[in-house]
Fold:
Amino acid sequence: MPIKIPDNLPATRILESENVFVMTEHRAIHQDIRPLRIIIVNLMPTKIETETQLLRLLGNSPLQVDIDLMQMATHVSKNTPHEHLLEFYQTFDQVRHLKYDGMIITGAPVETLSFEEVDYWPELCEVMTWSRTNIYSTLHICWGAQAGLYYHYGIPKYNLDKKLFGVFAHKPLDPTHPLLRGFDEIFYMPHSRYTEIRQEDIDKIAELHTLAKSDEAGTVIIASKDARQVFVTGHCEYDRMTLANEYKRDIGRGINQSLPKNYFPDDNPDTVPPMVWRGHANLLVSNWLNYFVYQQTPYDFIDNPENAG
Structure:
């Protein structure tokens, strides 16, 4: 799927060098088609890295996608240049009148706080309320998944004894579900979190369907019955070295952090980790785009308010 992004977004050069099909705004305006419109609510501190990771996955399909980026107006980002945010990001007030085919809500390094303690929680709640009528399907990632499950269904998160950190094996529970179409019987995904959701809480909500679990990492993919809400508790979007960089960052801060599990060959942090989750990451996102955004969204959803909800 060629993704339409600003010509001078830093991710453009990176993705083009990786042979990802990127369509610049100049070329896209000459195509007479109705592209999918996706908005990314980027809550990660390293926004340029995260937007590149997600755009890489969104670019792996044959349709045109228009991308907008949203930041929280009630939070001051300390790790992304202010000029980058001004040029490429919008606030909720700037897009609240619009409709989108899909939305992605990223993770955020705020797990040790209660949801209500997060400075932008009221604003994010407003965004999630708006998504019920203005977004056809939303993909929530890691803390974003926990936040969405809590807000929409009242499902709590629980503190872990130690950080769940590494690359873990998962099994599809419903291999016939379109979101898992083409998945192997075992697939891998990185996790990096201090909290968890529990299956017994999900089981109490008839509207939710658990699609994949891990013996070590717990429930990983949940969806509403109509898949207009999808929750992924891991980080399918992570690059090869993301966990390595997190590990080195924590060690540099004096945190007694264990090595990420099932990641470095021979548990040697000086080695290059194999990227064993890329194929399923692409498959998961392309399945979501194809089966629950492209094929389900009414053609005139964005222009016709009666199609929302």
